[in-house]
Amino acid sequence: xxxxxxxxxPPSMFAGKRDSVAGVRLLTSHHLLTAALALGGCxxxxxxxxxxxxxxxxxxxxxxxxxTGGDGGLTVGSxxxxxxxETCDPGLPSVDDDxxxxxxxxxxxxxxxxxxxxxxxxxxxxxxxxxxxxxxxxDEPAESCDAGLAIDSLxxxxxxxxxxxxxxxxxxxxxxxxxxxxVDADGSPGTPSLNVxxxxxxxxxxxxxxxxxxxxxxxxxxxxxxxxxxxxxTSCSLKGTGTAPPGYPQPVPNCVTAPTIHDDxxxxxxxxxxxxxxxxxxxxxxFSWEFPRFVCTAFNDQFVVLTDPAPPQSLLGNIAxxxxxxxxxxxxxxxxxxxxxxxxDFASSCKLGPMPMLCPPPPNPYCPGGPGVLSGTGFDMLMxxxxxxxxxxxTAPITPGDSVRLRFAIWDASDSQLDSTVILDRFEWxxxxxxxETVPTPR
Length: 443
Fold this sequence. Notes:
The chain is built from two helices and 15 strands. The protein has helices at 33-39, 156-163; strands at 49-51, 54-56, 176-183, 196-199, 214-218, 241-242, 261-272, 279-288, 302-308, 337-338, 387-388, 392-397, 403-413, 420-430, 437-440. It is elongated and about 75 Å long.
């Protein structure tokens, strides 16, 4: 797995880097700064005050003022006051001095820093190269692991590779991918077919965010119009009625709730976090034919990312939702890429239903992103219907060394008509203590 941390941290902490066995990134954080300040420095150096690109620190333990801004796009606050530094003496090689689970005899290359050990992930950042994962290499270049994957592969491990999960945890307690499987939305064994794909692109403008391949899941065919077995229309049912996870389809306030799900498919991965990871993130883009006519109806196809164990901020175990709790669907408050000329049809089916007075008005502005990202995807054939979120990034917390199971699931709601597709890529571990959030991916 290739992993990368980016951020501004004191010398004993992450300096940002990517290793040659992981396809994932890791970001440094001010939440790890406390540990660095407590350690002071392994060679008699004092703790450094950190604030973006500037770091302060005196050799004899005096703190310094940090700058502002920050390499890697992170701001870690201002530098702390000076204080007496403590010298770290690793002592006996058989003793785990920094309490990270490894002694020098067990391969710990820096027994003064709990963020450096054989179960850590490499960090790449600026001017302070280190060997966090103790493989004898410093700031080794990134490598991905998804070249040459077949578009019609039904191997879930290959799908995990396309997502950016390149390192296997193996039989021991190391970090990485523990298992991968295609399942139904409720987690029962699935039979994937054309509803999954490992794509080099979706349409003319949607390409992988890392490596050469991304994962596609669809309630129809996971192909664009240029690829073999493209749907060629708005509806290509492959399965029929499915079994929803408990609590789903998730109701949307003031809208009719779907009674059933159809054509569901999911990719489920079990992961173990590195010893210096405090969160993770991934990117996705959702496309649907249900927009704009079926906004706020029972026909709202949904994409969810169910977690086990579920972090406290999740909703029914789901970590992919907007700022008012809507799951990813045509009701999502993050759907700017569509045809402006379709505004007249917004929620028109809702207005024919039992509660027309509760139907939402069109967003203002309407379709500010335009239809460009739909070009060539298959969601561009009607010139008024079809929409996409564009790329979004979801983050979530994890405890270092813990295990988590993620189920990326999509389904049609109420019937098998009018398909939806999601593309997924660039899973990354984070060194900062993340909160659950889904936001547009910066361009």
